[in-house]
Specification:
Shape: elongated
Number of domains: 2
Number of helices: 6
Strand order of the largest sheet: 4-3-2-1-11-8-7-6-5
Structural class: alpha+beta
Largest sheet: 9 strands, antiparallel
Strand content: 25-35%
Number of strands: 20
Distance between the termini: 105 Å
Length: 308
């Protein structure tokens, strides 16, 4: 006859086994098994790219823009148009579990695959881990035949900002315009032009390459100008950012150079003097706009003063 302690031990093992079995993940019978064979050879155009909010804009003014043209080819390949090389490139398509696939160095989850449309969720993948919580972007494609013969619309018409985006930008514009130090990035950023031969202005360009995934959004998210003032009162260099209001007026916000704490106030005072004394006099300023609406936005200024 088993002792009481052995009985408890056996009972404990049985309970733990039951718990482990109940916690074991069962195969998902509803998991989508992906296949692009039914849509092979169909030309698709991306017509809408949006966040999980349903908007193409986020609070900071970043806009998701539809850019892809693609078709799936036999033998697990896809043809995708490269707007910079201005030609279609062929990529391998890697199929994974549960409707996950990779193409053009990007991972997706296929939400919908039909001859009329494709809906993909863009996945944030690090090494072998998919972070679904931060995978918040979606891409919607329509086939050329569907746009032409069913919707009777051109790709450009379908790519136009949607009503929800317009309403959101109106709301954000009202919010930031109420305070001179509040802003969001303007899709048509601030434009600066010199009014004097004493001042030269060059807008910095974002280099587009594979390292930034051919994304030049920094040009409107963080517009930056190099300004040189000739015959200044002395040689100097300051980097800082200002907000530009709807009237094209600059408002100094923050220095971007590192100085000791005891020099911060005097540095800010000098920069404000440069803004008020030079820039407001010699620089013509056009405020930023998004969807045709003028609003407060920010611009980085690298200002060099040359005495001679």
């Amino acid at each position: 006859m088993l002792s009481t302690s052995k009985c408890y031990l056996i009972l404990t093992v049985i309970i733990i086994s039951i718990i482990l079995l109940s916690c074991t993940k069962k195969p998902d019978k509803k998991a989508v098994k992906i296949s692009f064979k039914p849509v092979t050879g169909i030309n698709y155009t991306e017509v809408h790219r949006y966040f999980d909010t349903g908007l193409s804009f986020n609070r900071d003014g970043y806009q998701l823009s539809p850019e892809w043209f693609m078709s799936f080819l036999p033998n697990s390949k896809a043809s995708i148009y490269d707007p910079f090389e201005k030609r279609f490139l062929t990529f391998n398509v890697t199929l994974d579990h549960d409707s996950v696939f990779s193409v053009a160095n990007t991972w997706f989850k296929a939400m919908k695959i039909t001859k009329d449309s494709l809906l993909f969720r863009v996945l944030n993948v690090v090494t072998d881990t998919i972070y679904f919580d931060s995978s918040r972007n979606y891409m919607l494609f329509y086939s050329d035949d569907y746009m032409k013969n069913v919707l009777h619309k051109t790709p450009d018409e379908l790519k136009n900002p949607r009503r929800v985006d317009s309403l959101y930008i109106i709301k954000r514009t009202d919010e930031v315009n109420a305070h001179v130090d509040s802003f969001f990035a303007a899709r048509q950023p601030v434009v600066l032009k010199s009014n004097s031969p004493l001042v030269t202005i060059v807008k910095k360009k974002e280099e587009i390459n594979v390292m930034n995934r051919y994304d030049n959004s920094a040009e409107y998210m963080s517009p930056e100008y190099d300004i040189t003032i000739h015959k200044a009162y002395q040689d100097f260099y300051y980097s800082f950012y200002v907000t530009v209001d709807t009237q094209g007026r600059m408002h100094f916000q923050k220095s971007l150079i590192n100085v000791f704490e005891e020099f911060k106030k005097s540095t800010d005072r000098i920069i404000k003097g440069i803004v008020d004394g030079y820039l407001k006099t010699y620089v013509q300023i056009t405020p930023g706009k998004t969807l045709g609406l003028t609003h407060n936005s920010a611009v980085i200024l690298n200002v060099t003063g040359k005495k001679n």
